[in-house]
Amino acid sequence: MSLTTTYDPQNIFAQIIRGDAPCYRLYEDDDVLAFLDVFPQSYGHALVIPKRSAACNILDVDTEALCKVMTVAQKLTRVIVDELKPEGVQIAQFNGAPAGQTVFHIHVHIVPRYSGESLGIHAAGKAEPAELEKLQVRLAKRIALMDR
Ligand code: 5GP
Fold first, then answer.
1. Is the CB of 89 under 6 A from ligand 1?
2. Distance from Cα 127 to the centre of ligand 1, integer Å
């Protein structure tokens, strides 16, 4: 997929936004949705996406939507760091297949990094549903206190 690819409304994140596909939801408001990555590269790997922008990547997303996504990404990163206590956290955003993008609805990755633990393979290795459910519950209380 090139950087100028046409937005496909059947991509998996568009399906999640519509409620046609499930997700382990962490946060949602009118403009932004955040959920756990089901192929996590580390414990607590989360994704933040705009709900109203049919944008593939950083080139075609509108600035207002991008700002809203980044605002939630920062708040959620604070929550994840407070709860999971990683020693580091990566914020990543890929544009175009050669850059590593596999889902063509713009998104921001929050990837907690733990000392001595290497990064899992990108978009591979599905987590156990029970583990994702436990993690969702573990983060939920703090997320509920997050200001909007
Ligand atoms: P990208 O490679 O486009 O930067 O990131 C896409 C991310 O979406 C990957 O980290 C991949 O693991 C994740 N992903 C792919 N399919 C699904 C899915 O059905 N549900 C969730 N929650 N994450 C997905």
1. no
2. 12
Q: What does the pLDDT read at residue 97?
A: 95
Q: Structure tokens of 105?
A: 């609805």
Count of C-beta atoms within a 10 Å radius of residue 111: 24
Place of tokens 């059947």: 10
Hey, what are 126's tokens? Answer: 């599905």
**Residues ≥6 apart with Cβ < 8 Å to 138:** 83
pLDDT reported for residue 44: 98
- Token pair listed for 41: 């590269």
The answer to whether residue 27 scores a pLDDT higher than 80 is yes
Q: Is the CB of 12 under 6 A from ligand 1?
A: yes
Give tens-digit pLDDT for 97-132: 999 999 999 999 999 999 999 999 988 989 999 999
